Amino acid sequence: MTDIVASTPPAQDRAARRMRRPRWMGHAGLIIGLAILLTCLLMALFAPLVAPHDPYAQDLLSRFAPPVWHEGGSWNHVLGADHLGRDYLSRLLYGAQISLIIGIGTAIVSGIIGTTIGIAAGYFGGKVDSIAMFFITARLAMPVILIALAVVALFGSSLTVVMLTLGLLLWDRFALVTRASTIQLRSQEFVTAAQIQGASTLQIVRHEILPNLLNNLLIVATLEMAQAIVLEAALSFLGLGVPAPLPSWGLMISEGKASILFEPWLITIPGIALFLLVLGTNLLGDGLRDITTPQGRN
Amino acid sequence: MLNYALRRIFMACLLALFVSFLTYALIFTAGDPAAAIAGSASTAADAENIRQIYGFDDPLIVQYLRWVGNVLQGDLGNSLYFRQPVSEIILSRFAVTAQVGIFALIFAMLIAVPLGVAAGRWPNSLIDRGALFIAVVGQAVPSFWFALLLIIVFSITFPILPSSGLGTWRHYVLPVLVLGYFSMPAIMRLTRSGMISALETDYIRTARAMGLSERRVLFDYALRNAALPLISLSSAQFGFMLAGSVVVESVFAIPGAGRLAWESIGRADLPTVQALVLCFSLFYVLLTLLADMLNAALDPRMRMK
Fold first, then answer.
1. Which residue from B190, B192, B184 is spatially nearest to B135, judged by alpha carbons?
2. What is the pLDDT of residues A91-105, one digit of tens each?
3. Which end of chain A is more exposed for a tag (fewer CB within 10 A), N or C?
4. Strand partners, A81
5. Which of A140, A234, A282 minimises the CB distance to B136?
6. Do B245 and B179 meet the contact criterion of CB atoms below 8 Å apart?
7. Between B171 and B38, residue with greater pLDDT
8. CA nearest neighbour of A223 among A173, A167, A295
9. pLDDT one-digit tens code per residue, A221-251
10. Of B51 and A264, more confident
11. Residue B39: its pLDDT value, please?
12. Which band of pLDDT confidence, cut at 50, 70 and 90, is reported for residue B5?
């Protein structure tokens, strides 16, 4: 008897505590993703303060200095130095800036394009929808990497060109998602109410549709951000992304390729950074989707 | 069915025309083809001459229509680098790319479909979590880096596989691995969700009630229905894979269309680049058209859309 009485309160307590806890706290992926992304953000923001060396300073005496855990490594160059003797840790820290600028910038550009097309298609339906769907299919038929390579080669490589090119190419998912949600929202009572009150289309879109799309937009934005980061790295790796002295992680891997036989860490270190950032961004996106949709990932 | 097919084919043609116009406009207005043809040692007058000979001064739409007319006759122009018709160069290159792509797709399906079936049969089990983990990690690994890691491990540390070129079957292992893993997560996720919804249906309950073995229920009944959307997905994935071959082919030095595209871009060989972009897009349009036809043939409901 006493046993039962004694054992019930903690169980109830635990259940109650679980109920009270915000939903995002129970999602491991979301927390890990958020942590990785925040770390990268801090790395990028405080790179000038934390970086032990100038990321562009060449020091021929420390060419190919190995990382500290290798034989002959020193704490002066914690992650070693590249073929020009530039400190690898400093370049890695500054590289986070490039990846994040590309990722966020591309997500904004493609988000604006895709959301406009998606809302127009979903809200007006009919011919507008057919045309929008045609654009989306056309966009999917275009080989992204190839076109991005060609555009960067023709317009000259710079951070802005890469960002705008990727932004102009990656809006399809934004359009598809906003279109689908807008079709659902269009027939909701609050939209009809606004229409009856004589609100203009722009007002309805701004006050009734957009606020309800924000959740989905955020999820797609994180996924597109991850894709843009990988694509920038791939373009830079192929020599047609951001221009040379910039410490883009893709460019670092490309430069390390020549030393693949004896200094493989020149490839593995920036690759791990890239992998972690993309993983974190994807985890955050998946996590946001899990906790904001009732069915979760099923 | 015929009606549906004709409508889809018409849309595909329209799509091909639109996409080719976009890429044509992009590549030929952004670059200066006359200067590219004239070469770096030319004067402004040379470029001007070439501009007139080739008609680069004409309005874009006129140039484009002329180009389309030539393409329809099988003339994709001449490569500025090889000094021979582009169509002769790219055909063999595309064969290589398609070959590697097909192996990669088969490899991806062989791994991803069984994993997806298992994950969908036992949702939230250990195997489901494991498969999801693989998918999440797989999506985050950049393909060019993965390729280099494989070279480091299998060609340098343990030299058992060659790192470049194509010759024996060993040359195919690493490129197929890299290209294939890329499309695995999507195939696995779709198989999983398809299985979950198929297993909830009445016909599965009936099949189970009739005492059919679990294997027959899973593979003959559930997977068959779950596999329908896989046709569209794998054809799209195949298209993306071919377009993504630029990266893989340049790492492994495979003489395919992707590598040719990359080299041609570096050489400012605009006719070749334009032809390759066109072929990659056409291939995608054709693939999705085929997938739609196959779907419509297998599933009458699709024809109504």
1. B184
2. 999 989 999 999 999
3. N
4. A87
5. A282
6. yes
7. B171
8. A173
9. 998 999 999 999 999 998 888 887 888 898 8
10. A264
11. 65
12. confident
- Which among B27, B31, B243 has the least Cβ separation from residue A143? B243
φ and ψ of B242, to 5 deg: -60, -45
Cβ within 8 Å of residue A98, ≥6 positions away: A159, A232, A242, A246, A247, A248, A249
The shortest C-alpha distance from B41 to chain A (Å) reads 19
Nearest to B15 among A141, A147, A237 (CB): A141
Asked whether the beta carbons of residue A138 and residue B27 sit closer than 8 angstroms, the reply is: no
Domain ranges of chain A: 40-292
Are B247 and A145 in contact (CB < 8 Å)?
Answer: yes
Map tokens 């122009």 to a residue: B77
> Is residue A295 pLDDT above 60, yes or no?
no
Reading the block at residue A46, the tokens are: 């405080």
Residues 164-193 of A with CB under 8 A from B: none
Helix ranges restricted to H, chain B? 2-30, 33-38, 44-54, 60-72, 86-121, 126-140, 143-151, 169-199, 202-209, 214-216, 223-226, 228-252, 257-266, 270-298, 300-303
The domain segmentation of chain B, as residue ranges, is: 2-72, 87-299
Tell me if residue A224 falls in helix, strand or coil: helix
Helix or strand run (H / E) with residue A166: helix A159-169
Closest B-chain CA to A143: B243
Q: Which residues in chain A have Cβ-Cβ distances shorter than 8 Å to B137?
A: 279
Q: Which residues from chain B sit within 8 angstroms of residue A233, using beta carbons?
A: 142, 144-145
- Residue pair A229/A278 in contact (Cβ under 8 Å)? The answer is yes
- Asked if A146 and B142 come within 8 Å (Cβ–Cβ), the reply is no
d(CA A23, CA A58): 49
Choose, out of A146, A172, A281, the residue to mutate when testing the contact with B (most B CBs < 10 Å): A146
The predicted pLDDT at position A298 comes to 42
Question: What is the model's pLDDT at position A22?
Answer: 60
Residues on chain A touching B149 (C-beta within 8 angstroms): 267-268, 271
Closest-CA residue of chain B to A130: B11
ipTM score: 0.84
What CATH number does the domain located at B87-299 have?
A: 1.10.3720.10
Other CB atoms within a 10 A radius of the CB of residue B125 amount to 12
Q: Please name the member of A137, A145, A147 whose beta carbon is closest to the beta carbon of B15.
A: A137
Q: DSSP letter at A179?
A: H
Q: Which amino acid is at A50?
A: V
Per-residue pLDDT of B139-162, as tens digits, reads: 888 888 998 888 888 888 887 777
* Residues of chain B positioned with their CB less than 8 A from the CB of A240: 265-266
Beta-carbon contacts of A258 under 8 Å, excluding residues fewer than 6 positions away, are: A83
Does the domain at residues A40-292 carry the CATH identifier 1.10.340.30?
A: no
Instruction: Tell me the three state secondary structure of residue A87.
Output: strand
Structural tokens at position A263: 């200094």
- Nearest-angstrom CA–CA distance, B10 and B118: 40
Nearest to A141 among B19, B27, B136 (CB): B19
